[in-house]
Amino acid sequence: MAGKQTERTGRAGREDKAGSGAGSVREDRGPVRYGPPAPDPGLPVLPELAEVLAAAAGRSEPEPTGGGEALREAATAYWERRGLHGSPENIAAAPGASPLLLALIAAHGGDVLMPRPCTATWIPQARLLGRPAYHVPTPAECGGVPDPYALLETVRRVRAEGGRPRLLLISVVDDPTATVAPPELVREACEAAVAEGLHIVSDETWRDTLHRPHDTVLLSPAEMCPDDVTVVCDLAGALTPSAWPVAVARFPDTERAAVRHARTLDSLTALGAHVAGPVAMAAAHALREPDSVTDRVRRAAALQAQVAAAAHRAVLASGALARPPQAGRHLYADLGPLRSRLANRGVTDSLELEEYLTERLGAPAPGGHRFGDELGALRVRLG
User: Fewest Cβ atoms nearer than 10 Å: which of 140, 195, 274, 295?
Assistant: First the structure.
């Protein structure tokens, strides 16, 4: 069954419509460059961070590839406080999650596996590198982490077809679904991945945006598989403005990981992907988590929880479906129960749904096809 749901994105013929401007769909609703915008809380910049950035504006020396010592030390301390021990030598920073993940994928050979749905940038990045990429179904209760049995079946099917699955991308605190994967699911999926020889990249961008942090158990894959997991965090998720792009990766403390760390730095150098000096200073300050930053993160998460809960109630009241939001700024809605009513308005797939809702809401409402879901499914991310 998983094989029927698994899709090699390189052969995703149904997505051709999303990039062809077919029919009456506007051209700007299809191409990758018009995908979901960068995460933005819609809140003013924290004055303290603006002051740090302004104070560093006179810096003339460039930040080294992978981040300077101050930024890497701050990232190390950030993860130490979350139970993930390491050293600055195991950290790499880049101007945003996209170039960092691109460099990480390049550092690992073989095919890429990812859950369906998944972060919007993952599929285009695998394609850009010419890597075969495969979707794996997620369980009913959450997104971001594949069903362990479906993962095993997918790996074996890909190998039987001559593929080389080597890398699994997951997000325990997920965008687009706004869910948090249960610890037992994380454990089973990671054990299955490691047993099949996959390295895991855990995107934990949204881990500091839990709506009910005291009632939610969050397990990082790096806690249980420290030698087989690279953790990535885009600071725009909770700590810094999206206009100041910076993301950090924490590599395992192994010889094999050291080689991949070096390859990642090589790719970042080739891309010219250096964090701007003033942004690096502000990011280091945010990663040290002074009281002003942690208070802002807490209050922002509480506000986003209220908005998401209200949106969830409205979606359910309309007759549509959505998992209860647990983190982040979005809600992933399934308007399948409204299919006949939407068809009367000319909406028959997620591309048309994206156009329809974006025009009426006056805000981006990316369809599920952006996240690897079937084009025919009427799913949309609201936020």
Answer: 140
